[in-house]
Design brief:
Elements (H helix, E strand, L loop, with lengths): L6 H4 L16 H11 L3 H14 L5 H12 L3 H8 L12 H12 L3 H14 L6 H15 L3 H11 L6 H14 L3 H15 L2 H7 L8 H14 L2 H14 L6 H9 L9 H11 L3 H17 L3 H14 L26
Helix pairs in contact: 2-3, 3-4, 4-5, 4-6, 5-6, 6-7, 6-8, 7-8, 8-9, 9-10, 10-11, 10-17, 11-13, 12-13, 13-14, 14-15, 15-16, 16-17, 17-18
């Protein structure tokens, strides 16, 4: 199928939201940033370290290396590296605060993670490419802290961005399913579906689907979800999944819909989402892994949470070279002390 999966609008920025900056002139730094954006921090570390060794001026490569260490589950080293970032007086913090937040999560210090990420959000403009990434990590830190109401509040803020609304609603659905709030799950899924529903799907829902192809059935299922008709949505997604299990992300929808049905086993949604991480198309498994990261946070498993995020990032095709990566800043002579290693 060509145009269906949620991941096409999910816009997940957890790993590297700064991919909208001008292309770097330093190819070593550029390659490190690309690898980090693709969900491969271990591979990115040598390139970022080499950049710092050859051109030590400027805070951004140091911050990016700290982020790579954090995503590679080297929490202590990430924090040490983040402390080496020197920015001009009055400049807003950057990726080093995200790195510290991630590192503190893996060190089982969620309160410290929340503080680091909130510090970043308090000091960057709302339209900064860092903001949605930091807020997503903040939600995960708040979940690990056990503060589900505050996590939901952060998701409502995230949902104010149209591009991030599907992601926010899906995460909220998982939190509500975990807490047995079936009605809220249904509302979350309907709100998400209304963002991605197509006119063709709405039209198809009003006519016979006996001979409809898989694309039409999928579109109609999304339209049914948007209307709150979850029984019809479940039936149509199940038909698509049976016909073409490797063609779309119907398995993910079915897992989420299970969380909205009070007659289902409370663990059904979790089990189905976990299975969706292991089978189906690469794109569907990528989406399932990134969503299952929220389950890992709910279960206080931060290492597995990050592993799911990175696995999903790789499966979603982020290994292709992006057109834009984080800009390598020009050396700042004021930070001559950066040359002392």
């Amino acid at each position: 199928m060509n145009r269906l999966s949620i991941q096409l609008v999910l816009g997940l920025t957890l790993v590297l939201a700064g991919c909208q900056q001008p292309v770097a002139s330093d190819l070593t730094f550029q390659r490190g940033a690309q690898l980090l954006a693709s969900g491969s921090p271990k591979s990115a570390i040598p390139f970022l370290a080499q950049t710092i060794a050859s051109s030590p001026d400027g805070p951004e490569p140091v911050a990016m290396l700290a982020l790579a260490y954090a995503l590679d589950l080297q929490g202590d080293r990430a924090i040490l590296q983040a402390n080496q970032v020197h920015r001009a007086k009055g400049a807003a913090p950057g990726w080093e605060r995200v790195a510290v937040g991630i590192a503190e999560m893996t060190r089982h210090h969620p309160a410290e993670a929340v503080a680091s990420l909130q510090q970043l959000l308090d000091n960057v403009p709302a339209d900064s490419p860092l903001a949605p990434a930091a807020r997503q990590w903040l939600v995960l830190a708040q979940i690990l802290k056990g503060d589900h109401p505050q996590a939901e509040e952060s998701l409502r803020t995230l949902a104010q961005s149209p591009a991030m609304q599907p992601c926010a609603m899906l995460w909220a659905a998982i939190i509500h399913a975990y807490n047995g709030q079936n009605t809220s799950v249904a509302q979350d899924l309907a709100q998400c579906a209304r963002v991605v529903v197509s006119a063709s799907g709405q039209q198809a829902l009003g006519r016979s689907l006996a001979t409809a192809d898989d694309q039409t059935l999928y579109d109609a299922a999304v339209a049914a979800t948007a209307k709150g008709d979850l029984d019809t949505a479940q039936r149509l997604f199940a038909t698509v999944e049976k016909r073409s299990p490797d063609a779309c992300d119907a398995a993910v929808w079915l897992a989420l819909l299970a969380g909205a049905r009070p007659q289902e086993d409370p663990q059904a949604a979790r089990s189905m989402l976990k299975q969706a991480c292991l089978s189906g198309s690469m794109q569907s498994r990528g989406l399932a892994n990134q969503l299952f990261a929220v389950v890992c946070a709910l279960e206080d498993r931060p290492d597995e949470m990050i592993q799911c995020i990175l696995a999903g990032q790789r499966m979603l095709g982020r290994n292709s070279v992006p057109q834009r990566v984080v800009e390598q800043p020009k050396p700042e002579s004021v930070w001559f002390s950066d040359n002392i290693k």
